Amino acid sequence: MLVADDQPAVRAGLVLILRSAAGIDVVGEAGDGAAAVELALRLRPDVVLMDLRMPRLDGVAATRELVDGGVRGVLALTTFDVDEYLFGALRAGAAGFLLKDASADELIDAVRAVARGDGVVAPAVTRRVLAAFSGPIAGPQGAPPPGPVPLGVLTARERDVLACLGEGLSNAGIAARLGIAEATTKTHVSRILAKLGLQSRMQAALAARALDT
C-alpha cells in the first residue's frame, strides 16, 4: 500500500502503525497529491491511504486521477467538518472514508477491508453523507443528488446485492446473506458499478439508500 499525507510526523505515524500489522506492506510514501498519483500509478498498490487536504494536488483531485487510471482502492483520510473534501472524494470514487482520529486498530481494519475489495466508512461520516443525500445540495462543492437508479438494467440477483450494499455489508457478508460465493459477490458488485455508471461501492450504497428515502 501507499501512504499520502503532507505532514511528515503524521505520515510517519501512519506508516509505523501499518508496518506493524501482519500482511500489510507499505511500498511508498508521498507528501502531496501529485507525488501520490505518480507513485501509485507506477507501483499499483492495492490500497492508497489518501489525506484529502494536501498541497500541489489535493486528495480529491488525486483520487479522481487514480480511479481514472485504474487504481480504485483509495481510502480517504478526512475530518468530520470539511464537507467539500468528503463529498468531492465520494464523487471521485474513493473506496472508503476514515476519520483522522481513528484508532490504530480501526486504521488497520479499514486498510484490510479495502484491500479485500470491500468499502469502509466511519459511522459518523456515513450519517453525514446520508443526511446530505436525503435533500437537495446546493453549490459546486456539495454532494450531487444521487438521481434515479435505473434498476431495470440490473438482474434480480444484482438488485439483491445492491440492497445489501445499501446496508453496508461486506462482500463476505453479502455472500453469507445471499448464499453465494464471495467471488461471485465481487463479480456482481463489479457489474452493478459498470451498469449504473458508478465508481465505488460507497456510491452504490448511497444509490441503494436513496431508493428508501
From TrEMBL:
PROSITE patterns: HTH_LUXR_2, RESPONSE_REGULATORY. The keyword Cell inner membrane does not apply. SMART domains: HTH_LUXR, REC. InterPro entries: CheY-like_superfamily, NreC/VraR/RcsB-like_REC, Sig_transdc_resp-reg_C-effctor, Sig_transdc_resp-reg_receiver, Tscrpt_reg_LuxR_C, WalR-like. Residues 147-212 form the HTH luxR-type domain. Pfam families: GerE, Response_reg. The modification 4-aspartylphosphate is found at D51. Keywords: DNA-binding, Phosphoprotein, Transcription, Transcription regulation. Coiled coil: none annotated. It comes from the Bacteria. This is Response regulator transcription factor. Residues 1-115 form the Response regulatory domain. It comes from Dactylosporangium darangshiense.
